[in-house]
Every structure is written in C-alpha cells, then in structure tokens.
Amino acid sequence: MSAQISNQIAIIVQTIITTLAAFTVAFWLGLAIWTFRDIYARSRDILALIFAPLLVLLLGPAGWLIYLLLRPHRTLAEIYDQALEEDLLLQQIENTLVCPNCKRPVEKDWQVCPYCHTPLRRPCPNCGRLIDVSWDICPYCATEVAPALVTREEEVVSTTPIPAEASAGSSQ
Known about the structure:
By secondary structure, this protein is mainly alpha-helical. 58% of the residues lie in helices and 3% in strands. It starts with a helix and ends with a helix.
C-alpha cells in the first residue's frame, strides 16, 4: 500500500512539475512575443526588433525587465499624433490674423484694430468689399485704388486712448 501511495504522490508531483514547466515556457514565450509586438510599435530599427525579443528569450523575466528599462518612451503612433498636433498648432498660428501695430488677434472683416485703432482694411470704392489698406488694386473687381498711407501723425492719433468722459458722453 505504501508503494501505491508513493506512486500516486510521485505522479501528482510529476504532473504539477510538468504543468509548472509548461506554464513557465508559455509565460516565457508570451513575454518574448509581447516584447516583439511592443518594440514593433515603438521602433522600426531591425536590430531593436531582433535584439529585444532575443534578450527576453535568453534571460526570461530579467531580460523583460531590462527591456522595460531601455525601451523607447513613446510609440510611433504617439510620435505621429504629436507631430500632427504640432502641425495643426503651427497652421492655426500661421492663419491667425494679428494687428501689425499691437500684434493682438484681429478678425478678417475688421476695418480697424479695436485695441490700437490701426487701420486694417478699407472698402473698395467700386465693389465695396474690404481690401487691405496697402493694396493698390482690388482683387475682387480689379479696380485700381490709391494705397491709403497712414502718416505718422495719424498713427499717433489713432493709438491715443479716448478719454472716459468723452466716450461716456457720446454713448448717451
């Protein structure tokens, strides 16, 4: 009887050891596959694609920890998304109109800057569409117009603030 019990114990121990060994091998290969997929998302360097999974295959979980310490911080998708965001921001900055005098944002259809009173656009005498003050021809109707030159005195007058009592009196 004791031989039978020892045989059953030996079979149970052997089954447990085989199961743990199979689990360990599967875990080890899973780490290597995960490492390959992770490095593929982070780099297109052939040496990195070969070396990282090989490191995990040779050293196991210790190799995986080394890989985690050395891997690139961001994925290629994150780098691409950041580049798109930067391009979008640059495009928005380039498309933002600013006053040539005070550098504050202005709208496309404003005739003067509401902050410093600098003339920005004027209506075309022929078609009435707004054109830049420095243009000598209307791009909409091809009417030649004399460019409106702002003299230094007009610029100084236009940048002086309106007194509070004058603006209050004119609104009544």
